[in-house]
Amino acid sequence: MNDYPGKHPASFRDPSGFVFEQGGKIYRQVNQLYKEHFDHLVNSGLYSQLTQAGLLVQHDTIQKNLLNSPDWYLTLIPERIPFISYPYEWSFDQLKDAALLTLKIMRKALDKGMILKDATPYNIQFNAQARPVFIDTLSFESYAGHQPWVAYRQFCETFLAPLLLNAYLGMESSRLFFSYPDGVPVQQCASWLRFKSRFHSLALLHIHLQKAVTNGRSKVQQGSFTKAKLLRIVEHLDGGISKLKLPERRTEWNQYYDPLLTGSPYIREKEKVFAEYVGGISFSSAIDLGCNNGYFTRMLSTHERLVVGTDFDNDSINDFYAAQKKEGNAHHCLPLVADWLHPAASSGWENAEQKSLIDRSSFDLVVALALIHHLTVARNVPLEHIVSLLSKICRRWLIIEFVTKEDERVIDILERKEDRFPNYNPAGFEKIFSGRFNLIRKTDLKQGHRMLYLFEKKPTHG
Amino acid sequence: MLHFFLYVDPGSGSYLVQAIIAAVLGAAFYFKSAWWRIKSFFSGKKKKSKEENDE
To answer: Residue A346: its chain B contacts at CB < 8 A?
Structure first.
């Protein structure tokens, strides 16, 4: 239930304040209840330390009670996050960086006499530089120094457990979040990990021991805990998590754009035509569906543009994220794990806390390279349905590659199944797409049986 | 901006496990630094540890 117009449907759990939208702007109200903690955050210098380091989202403060709320203390205007994403769309390294960010903030907070009262990946977003940033300014609480961490279990279940299961068993963290949106319970994680991790102190102490203690239903004597002890736990988590790695795996996809292949005449020709198309249009946001390791996605990025790359292959997205990070995030693309056959649905309370991927997707330019045959020929999605999806998320431009039946990969797919795709040819494709899009440019790629198209969306379907 | 608060239930045993882990890590640190002292006594090298001993 929303008690104020514009109040964000996910902002109801914490009485410290809430997020709301007014006149297309996002605000965060701080309630009187949280006054003492908020003042501590600002006056201790923690807020400026964290924002200057790019760890916490920046905000402007206004002294206006925009909603005439009796609980009002302050109104914040937080820096806008260009694209909202969720842990079920992050690759291993993205979740790992989010976990390390949380611990780093926790250490700095403890230093200033504060603590994080919750620790979940949903408090983190990727900013315009595609770097993780903590968004929940009201998560900080004054810390007296003799209490264990209230959010410890939550941290273990939402960060540590999925990371360990991914690192040890290859269970992709992104997929785990679909089944366990609030994190993998310690008991469940311990039973999956079993002996695999018994010599690893990270899993032994924070998962296995925690499971044993929880099962015992014992009560704790409070008062004997210290800040130094808590710091030791935080540092142990930090040290262990920084060493966790995604198991080496070469999928069919994460070697798709290997250096050897990228030098091929086909890729070089496609790159040239693609660059021409991109150079000839103007757009401020773009999404690359099936971006693999981002080889073509990076060509779209400038400092001002929002560029999102999605792929269903977790390892490719991880490679994309890791490579971009290595280059100092010069490209500013946001890589996300997404399977467009099963795009993330609306979820949470009343299906309103997290928006579906399609509801979040509206881009000036949509790119779909070497993707259509996987959807149509391999997965039986008719071309009409593909146009329907593309026109939903596309505001103006569409660059799409058509892979013909003469192409090796299509031949390969059709060897295993009956050819029931009479319309699957350039003429049929153009006819179906012309219902929603105007053809602007078309290039027959000489190296291979593929064509590249630039379409512009017809305004009637805007 | 989407935002998700989670007022957490610390979970039964979560405080106790933190007390035990802190003790285990404290003991591990104690033995580690004792081992370094013995090692540096014999090797003659002085090893500085960045960590603080809070126990």
So the answer is: none
- A233 and B21 in contact by Cβ < 8 A? yes
pTM for this model (two decimals): 0.91
B/e letters for A40-55, b = 16+ CB within 10 Å, e = fewer, are: bbeebebbeebbeeeb
The answer to whether the Cβ–Cβ distance between A148 and B6 falls below 8 Å is no
Instruction: Centre a 10 Å sphere on the Cβ of residue A267 and count the other Cβ atoms it contains.
Output: 17
Chain B contacts to A (CB-CB under 8 A):
1-22, 24-26, 29, 51-52, 54-55
Query: Rounded CA gap, A366 and A359, in Å?
Result: 15
Cβ proximity of A298 and A319 under 8 Å:
no
Cβ separation of B5 and A11 shorter than 8 Å? yes
Residues A292-347: pLDDT tens digits?
Answer: 999 999 999 988 899 999 999 999 999 999 999 999 888 899 999 999 999 999 99
What count of Cα atoms within 13 Å lies in the side-chain half-sphere of residue A346?
Answer: 11
Helices (H), A87-215: 92-111, 152-155, 161-169, 173-179, 186-193, 201-203, 210-215
Q: Which residue shows structure tokens 């940033």? A: A133
CB atoms within 10 A of CB B11: 18
Residue with tokens 């299961």, as numbered in its chain: A165
Q: Helix A314-326 and helix A92-111: axis angle, to 10°?
A: 50
Neighbour tally for A305: CB within 10 Å: 17
B17 vs A contacts (CB less than 8 Å): 152, 209-210, 213-214
| E strand residue ranges, chain B | none
- Tell me how far CA of residue A461 lies from CA of A97, A281, A437, in angstroms: 40, 20, 9
Residue A365 in tokens: 């330019």
Q: Which residues of B touch A148 (CB under 8 A)?
A: 10, 14-15, 18-19
Percent of chain A scoring above 90 in pLDDT: 78
Asked if A214 and B4 come within 8 Å (Cβ–Cβ), the reply is no
- 8 A C-beta contact, residue A263 and residue A342: no
How many Å apart are CA A51 and CA A137, to the nearest integer? 10
pLDDT (tens digit per residue) in A377-423: 999 999 999 999 999 999 999 999 999 999 988 999 999 888 888 88
Backbone angles phi, psi at A445, to 5 degrees: -75, 115
Q: Do B15 and A225 touch (CB under 8 A)?
A: yes
Cβ atoms of A162 and A169 closer than 8 Å: no
CA-wise closest residue to A103 among A57, A142, A156, A40:
A156
Chain B residues touching A214 at Cβ < 8 A: 11-14, 17
- H/E stretch holding A269: helix A265-279
